[in-house]
């Protein structure tokens, strides 16, 4: 009995290369999903003894407490403000990482850790073939390729957290001078589960009374990106309160958008400014110290 054999026609290498190239072009032509990463500054400990050194570090992304590393050129300034108001800038290493730096707390009282980003663009547009596209370039960079522009932002971000060295300062450093800042109404180290964190937004050194939006979450609520315990909420007067229903580390974010000035309208449609704040709400010890500790 003769056994039949299945014959597979050979495909020329040039045809395979052409198919691969066409597939690659198709992939590259697809819209790139892009969400504006948020910057949060944190501390290894938020309550330290005098003389103790503990690291500050960042989260950059959509998950709290840690997500992506931060590029060095994204950080415009990282500043440690002592209880007497003296500020020290930290030299940022030229790498992409969590940018952890040891801070020695050698003066009793409340310290503030702050950071601000170098501004960046985000433009969402439709090309002349009707495909959705996005880029981190200004509108002027894609105007010859665009059929329409759906969104174009120029984004600036400001981050803050607090550390207490021994007893907190009698005069809490609520406002430390960021261009957009979440300013607590009182000492955040007195807050406990069930309290509310009352915040006033300051812009360019004065209370801001315009529209904006805030959201907040705490460690352990969700592992999913942008899955916030307190979903985005619109406010009209630049003041709001965050219910602190759980102990742990809390992240609060607020942003505003303003139309571009006439001399910037070819670059972007709106200026987006974002302020973030991280505070820690302590709990009582749940289990006793292990024997021999």
Can you characterise this structure?
- The protein is mostly beta strands.
- Helices cover 6% and strands 45% of the residues.
- The strands form three sheets. Strands 2, 4, 5, 7, 8, 9, 10, 14, 15, 17 and 18 form an eleven-stranded mixed β-sheet that branches. Strands 11, 12, 13 and 16 form a four-stranded antiparallel β-sheet that branches.
- Strand 8 and strand 9 form a beta hairpin.
- The termini are far apart.
- Residues 1-11 and 15-34 have low confidence and may be disordered.
- What structural category do the secondary elements indicate? mainly beta
Number of strands: 18
What can be said about the biggest beta sheet?
11 strands, mixed
SSE succession:
HEEEEEEEEEEEEEEEEEE
Count of DSSP helices? 1
Mean pLDDT: 89
Radius of gyration: 25 Å
Name the poorly predicted regions: 1-11, 15-34
Strand content: 35-45%
Question: Distance between the terminal alpha carbons, to the nearest Å?
Answer: 82 Å
Amount of helix = under 10%
Overall morphology = elongated
Summarize this structure as a short list of keywords or feature phrases:
293 residues, mainly beta, 11-stranded mixed beta sheet, 4-stranded antiparallel beta sheet, 1 helix, 6% helix, elongated, disordered N terminus
Strand and helix map with partners:
Layout (H helix, E strand, L loop, with lengths): L12 H17 L8 E6 L3 E2 L3 E10 L13 E7 L5 E3 L11 E5 L3 E9 L2 E8 L4 E4 L10 E20 L14 E5 L11 E8 L2 E2 L4 E7 L11 E6 L3 E5 L4 E12 L10 E12 L12
């Amino acid at each position: 009995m003769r056994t039949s054999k299945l014959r597979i026609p050979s495909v020329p290498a040039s045809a395979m290369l052409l198919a691969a190239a066409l597939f690659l072009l198709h992939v590259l032509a697809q819209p790139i999903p892009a969400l504006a990463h948020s910057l949060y500054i944190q501390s290894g400990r938020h309550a330290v003894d005098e003389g103790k050194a503990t690291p500050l570090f960042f989260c950059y992304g959509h998950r709290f407490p840690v997500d992506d590393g931060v590029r060095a050129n994204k950080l415009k300034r990282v500043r440690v403000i002592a209880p007497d108001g003296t500020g020290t800038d930290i030299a940022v290493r030229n790498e992409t990482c969590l940018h952890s730096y040891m801070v020695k707390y050698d003066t009793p009282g409340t310290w503030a850790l702050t950071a601000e980003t170098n501004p960046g663009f985000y433009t969402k547009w439709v090309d002349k073939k009707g495909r959705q596209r996005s880029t981190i370039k200004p509108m002027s960079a894609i105007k010859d390729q665009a059929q329409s522009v759906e969104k174009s932002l120029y984004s600036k971000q400001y981050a803050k957290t607090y550390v207490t060295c021994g007893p907190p300062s009698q005069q809490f450093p609520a406002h430390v001078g960021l261009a957009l800042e979440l300013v607590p109404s009182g000492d955040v180290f007195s807050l406990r589960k069930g309290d509310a964190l009352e915040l006033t937004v300051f812009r360019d050194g004065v209370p801001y009374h315009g529209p904006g939006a805030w959201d907040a979450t705490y460690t352990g609520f969700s592992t999913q990106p942008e899955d916030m315990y307190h979903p985005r909420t619109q406010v009209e007067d630049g003041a709001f309160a965050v219910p602190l229903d759980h102990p742990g580390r809390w992240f609060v974010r607020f942003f505003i958008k303003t139309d571009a000035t006439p001399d910037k309208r070819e670059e972007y449609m709106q200026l987006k400014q974002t302020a973030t704040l991280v505070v820690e709400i302590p709990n009582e010890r749940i289990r006793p110290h292990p024997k021999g500790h």
